[in-house]
């Protein structure tokens, strides 16, 4: 899979992982080879910014953007005309001036590669810088290396993210996918408990999602909630092409349930939207008491549901939006299965 194929708007690839996972090494090697390959192509430019903790309180967005402009001018001097149009007399360009120069220069370039190594070291500034860079048209090809800091990761919600703590070959990814499909009784049933069918489905899902983990998981979550074989096959062979459309489909599935289950799911999602961390079963059950009683009656339990039954009811009614958090000593906890779900639900809202 080539860089320019993985994501079109914006063309950004994010490498995340713990210290020592190789993020910076990949950035440096990428910079070396991009410069070597395109050295003679004057319509292609490569810029590289490395951030460290010492810059945290000092580096501003204006300084970072000005640094990018300086690298562009040094590598491709003919772009200096765009600075000259500003009647620039020296010193540092302002934030707006730098963006203007980069935008003008981008139109003259066939491609502009930008590498941001260690962007999390300057979290707030880094997030602002990244958002400024996304306004540039045509878009830049951006490679970002960052630790998985939740604050800055929200800025990358629409980007391809590769976790270097969990490297996996294509064959390993397929094996993992086969295991996921076989573990789910509903999916395994729709595939006729046939291992060849499972292997074929795993390959289809991997191809459709370009191997992007978050999209893969969203497809699997939706398949696990399919109410009919026809719905299952439609999702498998013709899934939505982007996460936003996948989430819209999942939300439709939530709202089209019987009224008691839809109300229960909406209440559960609101509880998790308001939480800043995974929610305990007891807290969620207390907040959803009225809705929980309604579905307990609907399911003819005749008693209070167990913790396991409450968990299954929540996951089932939320149609893939909710998963179990990593097990802890304080019992089972619920969470939105990815932080991009929270962003989607906040933007689109949950009907009353």
From TrEMBL:
Domain Nephrocystin 3-like N-terminal span(s) in chain numbering: 2-147
Repeat keyword on record: yes
Pfam family name, one: NPHP3_N
UniProt feature coiled coil, ranges: none
Keywords: Repeat
InterPro entries hit by this protein: NPHP3-like_N (IPR056884), P-loop_NTPase (IPR027417)
Transmembrane region(s): none
UniProt KW Repeat keyword: yes
The name this protein goes by in its record: Nephrocystin 3-like N-terminal domain-containing protein
Organism: Penicillium nalgiovense
Lineage: Eukaryota, Fungi, Dikarya, Ascomycota, Pezizomycotina
């Amino acid at each position: 899979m080539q860089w320019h194929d993985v994501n079109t708007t914006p063309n950004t690839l994010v490498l995340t992982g713990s210290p020592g996972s190789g993020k910076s090494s990949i950035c440096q090697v990428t910079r070396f080879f991009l410069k070597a390959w395109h050295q003679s192509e004057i319509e292609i430019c490569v810029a590289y910014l490395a951030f460290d903790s010492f810059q945290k309180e000092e580096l501003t967005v204006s300084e970072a953007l000005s640094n990018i402009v300086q690298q562009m001018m040094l590598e491709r001097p003919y772009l200096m005309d765009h600075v000259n149009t500003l009647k620039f007399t020296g010193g540092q360009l302002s934030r707006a001036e730098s963006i203007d120069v980069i935008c003008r220069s981008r139109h003259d370039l066939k491609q502009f590669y930008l590498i941001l190594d260690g962007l999390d070291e300057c979290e707030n500034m880094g997030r602002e810088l990244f958002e400024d860079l996304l306004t540039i048209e045509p878009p830049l090809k951006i490679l970002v290396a960052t630790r998985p800091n939740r604050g800055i990761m929200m800025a990358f919600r629409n980007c391809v993210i590769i976790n270097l703590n969990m490297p996996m070959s294509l064959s390993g990814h397929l094996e993992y996918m086969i295991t996921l499909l076989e573990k789910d009784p509903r999916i395994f049933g729709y595939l006729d408990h046939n291992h060849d069918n499972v292997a074929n489905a795993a390959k289809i899902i991997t191809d459709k999602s370009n191997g992007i983990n978050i999209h893969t998981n969203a497809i699997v979550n939706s398949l696990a909630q399919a109410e009919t074989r026809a719905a299952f096959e439609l999702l498998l062979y013709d899934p939505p092409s982007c996460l936003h459309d996948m989430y819209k489909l999942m939300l439709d599935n939530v709202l089209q349930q019987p009224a008691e289950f839809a109300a229960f799911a909406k209440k559960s999602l609101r509880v998790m939207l308001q939480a800043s961390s995974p929610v305990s079963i007891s807290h969620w059950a207390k907040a959803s008491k009225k809705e929980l009683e309604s579905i307990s009656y609907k399911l003819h339990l005749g008693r209070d549901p167990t913790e396991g039954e409450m968990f299954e009811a929540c996951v089932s009614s939320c149609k893939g939006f909710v998963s179990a958090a990593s097990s802890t000593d304080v019992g089972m906890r619920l969470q939105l299965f990815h932080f991009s779900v929270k962003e989607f639900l906040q933007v689109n809202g949950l009907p009353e």
